Amino acid sequence: MNSLQIALRVLRVDRRTRTSAILTAVGVAVATGLVLLLATLPFATQNREQRAIWQGGNYYSRGTDGPAKLLFNASKDYFDGKQIIRVDVALTPGTSPGAIALPPGVPQLPGPGETVVSPALGRLLQAHPAAELGDRFGKPVGALGEEGLRFPEQLVALTGHTPDAMPENVSQLPGFPGGKASPDPLLMLLSWVGIIVLLVPSLVLVASSARLTATRRERRLAAIRLAGATPGQVTNMVAAETTLSAGIGALLGLLISPALHGLASFVPWAGGTWLASDFALPIGLTVFIVLSIPVLVVLAGVLGLRRVLKNPLFATGGHTKKPLRWWRLLALPAAGLFFLVAVLTAKDYGGIGLVMAGLFLLVGSAAIVGPWVTSAVGGTFVRIWRRPSALLAGRRLRDDPKGAYRASAGIVLAVFAGSMALTLLPTFESMAGGGRSFRDEVLYVDTDNQHAGRIVEQANAALQKYGRSERAVAVGKVYLVQGQAPNRYGHRALVMTCADAVKLTRFGLTPENCTGGPGVFGDSALDLAQYKVAASWEGTATAAKSGTRVETVRYPDADLSGSFIIDPAALPDGLTPTDVTVVAPADGAAREIVRTALAGPAAGAEIGSRDQYLFNQQTELGDLRRVTVIGLIAAGILAGCSAAVATAGSVMDRRRTFGALMAAGTPVRVLARALRMEAALPALVATIGAGIVGVGVGVGLFSMVDERGIVLSPWLLAPVVLGVGVALLGASVCTPALKRVQAEPLADE
Fold first, then answer.
1. pTM to 2 decimal places
2. Average of per-residue pLDDT across 556-582
3. Mind telling me which residue stretches traverse the membrane in this protein (predicted)?
4. What are the tens digits of pLDDT across the range 521-542?
């Protein structure tokens, strides 16, 4: 009879071994499914960016060398809080539409005054008046296909123009942007963190499932060794038994991965959901993952045979376990030092791989430090408490700290991940803000002095046609400087009347500031005898007109510091600002109409506002919150399951001991209380440590992004509290398990 036949025979006749194998297979399936999902996320982002590469943005090259055939401009528009990708194109003189290769999903090239829109944008155009949205783009003549959109609900407009109507910063290309898209770096980082943080609890669940019958298996293998089996034969038996359950689990994980991908396609990221085809993992990587996880499980099972191979009588004989050494505590500072060095050198050497390796070492160090902490807690129990349940729990923690820590291992990692996430999120939220100098309800478009007059004239004509009283004004930008270029010192100043500054800016000017003639307004008093006005930073500087007053204003927001307002009447004669911003008030119901009035003459130049400046920030924060919640829920569920399985395994391992105690008259409630104490108190100590380490890792990861200080929130205590709660919940299975032991004859053991 070969090893596989023996494994099948054992599974067929032993109910406990069969239960352990089923749970092991489930754990391997979960681990395989999670890794397949997390590993495919960078490829998913790359796939959808590849579809949208023609839309411009950050993921395109300017094409191959060749004559310019297409004037191209990509910008962002907004409607009712939704982002619209706007692509404005025009053919160069002498180019026919047939000379331009169309990207996948683009049915035709729109002519001047025409537009091709995505289905979602088409529905918006039909549902709202043309003055609010439709007049921005022109006449719809076609619909973009799914293969040309970043995500199904993306709002995109491809609008045609004549060459002279294109904005001044237009790109001249041989065709639509092409090249190879790049994956989202943030989601790639999160996927690696997720693999490290979620894979380990999954493997802990597998290990806990495998330990359900550890004592019985050791006893069985010891008997086989005494019967004459060689160490190699025993190893092959365990490898066959483990390979059977792990292999089935890996195949099951592969089978459920499409369902996980389908669920993930409904989770928004960067403003939209996904296509099911986005989650395509290379076949080679899929095979590697499906094979490597069972190999790790089998390797762990074989390494666990050391005791049986060294001493076959271990399962039936006594054995004094060596106490754990203090040097285990050095694993955590060593891993922390490696992580710190990796973080400090990441910017200079691009060592994100070393940072992830340091994170993995920190996660792995918990398996070394945790049992020592558990043993120390058990020793405290034995020395201080005298209640029966406390003494039983303390003796268990002291005698088998590795086995006792196994119930808390997944919880410790979940608390670590939660503390790290709740360190980063409040800090990222505190960074949100900023923006231009204009009020929240103001819309603006940047241009130059050659186009500003035309945009103002046409926008105001459109507003008048729509029956609105709002009017656009041109606001120039100049510099108040000292010294000669390039060694200059100075401040930026907006050229606008005081009355317009009161209505349009956030500087806090009031009508009282506007009495007294032309002036310069700022948060500090400038000596105009030392400062001159220049149209550009390195341009010719000329003194302001005589009689210009300087008035100090207390700014309401710190981000406005250093900016000034200068009245047009104070500018030197002949000085014309080079950079101009066309600004229009757009409050309440007039907002979308004003945006439409500006969009026509702007011809694709991006129209901004303070709330849209914050759009990407809030979108990223929403994505991070969503991913954090999903990840912590998954980690918590895995941790709770591993705690429950480990507790049940602890009862099964000690069936003979518990049976003897019950036969001697020990109440089940005392044993159940001891088991709960075994789970809760080590979990409390370990989770506090994990929370502290998680905060430290969060600070380190944030330092790679920004050098400002971290924001600590009271919510940092939540993972520790929830971790102890999950440990107690997982330990609650001890009472049913003990009652089952009580119901079975002790002679069975």
1. 0.77
2. 90
3. 21-44, 186-210, 246-267, 279-305, 326-346, 352-382, 403-425, 629-652, 679-703, 715-738
4. 999 888 888 899 999 888 889 9
Q: Residue ranges of the alpha helices (H) in 432-496?
A: 449-465
CA-to-CA distance for 426 and 202, rounded, in angstroms?
28
Ramachandran region, residue 632 (left: φ > 0; alpha: ψ -120 to 50; beta: rest): alpha
Retrieve residue 510's tokens.
Answer: 């009031």
pLDDT of residue 40: 93
Best CA proximity match to 76, nearest among 146, 136, 144:
136
Give the per-residue pLDDT at 564. Answer: 95
Q: Are 274 and 184 in contact (CB under 8 A)?
A: no
**Residue 438 CB contacts under 8 Å (≥ 6 apart), including other chains:** 444, 504, 505, 506, 583, 609, 610
Rounded Cα distance, 355 and 363, in Å: 12
Under the banding of pLDDT at 50, 70 and 90, the label for residue 108 is very high
**Cα separation of 601 and 458, whole Å?**
6
Region label for 345, one of left (φ > 0), alpha (ψ between -120 and 50) or beta (otherwise): alpha
| C-alpha pair distances (Å), 286 with each of 191, 279, 613, 727 | 16, 12, 40, 34
Burial class (CB in 10 A: 0-12, 13-18, 19+), 501: buried
Q: What CA–CA distance (Å, rounded) separates 544 from 490?
A: 14
The alpha carbon of residue 413 and the mean position of all alpha carbons in its chain are separated, in whole angstroms, by 18
Residue 358 pLDDT greater than 80, yes or no: yes
Characterize 535-549 residue by residue with b for buried, 16 or more Cβ atoms within 10 angstroms of its Cβ, and e for exposed.
Answer: beeeeebeebeeebe
Q: Under 8 Å CB-to-CB from 472, ≥6 apart: which residues?
A: 455, 456, 459, 460, 463, 582, 583, 584, 597, 598
Q: How confident is the model at residue 375 (pLDDT cuts 50, 70, 90)?
A: confident
